[in-house]
Amino acid sequence: MSGSPDRAVVLNDVTFAYDGRPAVQHLSGAFLRGSLTAIVGPNGSGKTTLLKGMVGLLRPADGLIQSARLGGGGIAYLPQQIEIERRFPISVIQTVLLGHWRRIGWAGAATRELRAQAQRALVAVGLEGFERRPIETLSAGQFQRVLFARLIAQDAELILLDEPLAAVDWRTSEDLLRLIVSWHQERRTVVVVLHDLDQVRAYFPETLLLAREPVAWGPTRQVLMPQNLKQARHMSEAWSGEGEHSRPAARLWHAASAPRLDPLPATSLTLPRSQGRDG
Amino acid sequence: MTLYDLALGPFAEFRFMRRALVGCFALALGCGPVGTFLVIRRMSLMGDALSHAVLPGAALGFILGGVSLPAMSFGGAVAGLGVALLSGLVTRLTPLREDASFAAFYLISLALGVLLISTHASNIDLLHLLFGSILAIDDVALVLIGAVASMSLLSLAVIWRPLVLECFDPGFLRAVDGRGGLVHTVFLALVVLNLVAGFQALGTLMAVGLMMLPAAAARFWVRDLLALSATSSALALVSGFLGLLLSYHLDFPSGPSIILVAGVAYCASVLFGPRDSLRAIYSAG
Predict the structure, then answer these.
(1) Are A53 and A115 members of one domain?
(2) pLDDT tens digits, A157-174
(3) A224 belongs to a structural domain
(4) CB atoms B172 and A79 under 8 Å
């Protein structure tokens, strides 16, 4: 579909709107095959909207999204955890097996080989021995590990993650970041919505800074320059005046993003923001 | 009076009691799993709404076809599916939430049904439609109930996996399967069909009782989805059996008797069930 074989997803002047009000405007660019990209921006800047559009859950109001022909695994998409019914009576291994959906569908059998793959995925996320546990007994961090095991089972070429590290403990956060990097090393195309700019600087070669309109898109070091972050903040203040987006979290992001000048810190990170939320 | 006279005699002696029992058993098979999914999807009140929505169709069938079960059932099914589809449409096309759009259409439907009955039929007919009469179930009704139960179990076997995924993680289902939206529609159709099967026996007001009460009670006994469905069916089955006996011996109307037995089972489960019941919570704490 797309003209160039090295582009996984091409965005051509894409606009998304809710009730006629734009959520993302005039976004053009491409996620290259095998790239690892973070999407950052203030609350309400259209990050989730863009991911949903790339999955095909939302239709752009204008412009064109072209996805390259993907292999068997297709697109793997991890929505924010609030969209998942955590109290549903389903076991850990069954959840991971759902990752094989494209191979088993509505009524196909989960073969021994698929079960073995799901088992290996659980080992990879550090949850060996949790197979039969009901998911409602897991902590937020453990549950996110299960969802990552499901992503591994999906074996997709294009992986889209929406705030995968929100509300997980720092140790889980580190482990999951390591998994994300390993997918990048396997030449998969990975796009992740994130809030923590330290994590972005440490692990993500490419960044898209979004504030309804694209502010900058390219190598992380160049995108997360102070003037860009300042511009994103100004743009978000313009729409915060509309009322519905002026949540405290938006101000937090401003505070975190504005004064920081140090590019690319060393690999060891302290993540006080999410620490201790999860037992 | 021996135990035989108390528990088995009425069924051995009277054909209408045997029919009623078989009807209850068939209803229980379909209602168990359907009710379980309604509870898990937090759609309990939507089942209630749909049960009321069936009324105008059943009334219209009654007015046009007399006391003809096929006519009333067909009318009821059309009205129920109509409300389900219209509500779904409004939910999809406008920001109004599903519960509110359901409430709007079922209220319209209910008012229309009551209006139809009161202008075209006697009060006795209204009572019959609202409360049913399981003791008057004939062969046609049994075949209908049996067909609905069979179809429900077969359909559930086909849509089980996507239905589970739709309850658990709808975003994932939409992302991996383009036909995922179909599952919700099929499920609502199953709810309507089971309500229609139940309304001859229990009436439109109480048909949903055999769906909801056992499913809500089962939640206090088991956790696994299959076990929940099986337990709901078993509880519905026992409620039907005991309710019919109660109705026979004490000369109570059968519908309310069955639902009240299910209600007692529910209350007992909330109080004493092994999982998450009040007893379990307070004896542990």
Answers:
(1) no
(2) 999 999 999 888 989 999
(3) yes
(4) yes
Q: Are residues A48 and A96 in the same domain?
A: no
Q: Tell me the pLDDT tens digit for each residue of A207-245.
A: 999 999 899 999 999 999 999 999 998 888 877 665 444
Whole-angstrom distance, CA of residue A42 vs CA of residue A254: 7
Number of domains in chain B: 1
Q: How many domains does chain A have?
A: 2
Instruction: Give tens-digit pLDDT for A125-163.
Output: 999 999 899 998 999 899 999 999 999 999 999 999 999
- Quick check: A84 contacting B, CB < 8 Å? yes
Q: Is there a single domain that holds both residue A79 and residue A91?
A: yes
Mutation site for B-interface testing, chosen from A18, A87, A88, A106 by largest number of B Cβ within 10 Å: A106
Give me the CATH number covering residue A35. Answer: 3.40.50.300
Whole domain around residue A39: which residue ranges?
Answer: 1-70+189-260
Q: What is the 3-state secondary structure (H, E, C) of B17-64?
A: HHHHHHHHHHHHHHHHHHHHHHHHCCCHHHHHHHHHHCHHHHHHHHHH
Predicted ipTM of the assembly: 0.73
Burial group, residue A267, by CB count within 10 angstroms (0-12, 13-18, 19+): exposed
What are the C-alpha distances in Å from A260 to residues A205, A226, A257, B82, B148?
18, 7, 6, 58, 66
**Which residue in A83, A104, A106 is closest to B158 by CB distance?**
A106
Whether residues A76 and A149 share a domain: the answer is: yes
Do residues A45 and A76 both lie within one domain?
no
Q: What is the pLDDT of residue A248?
A: 44
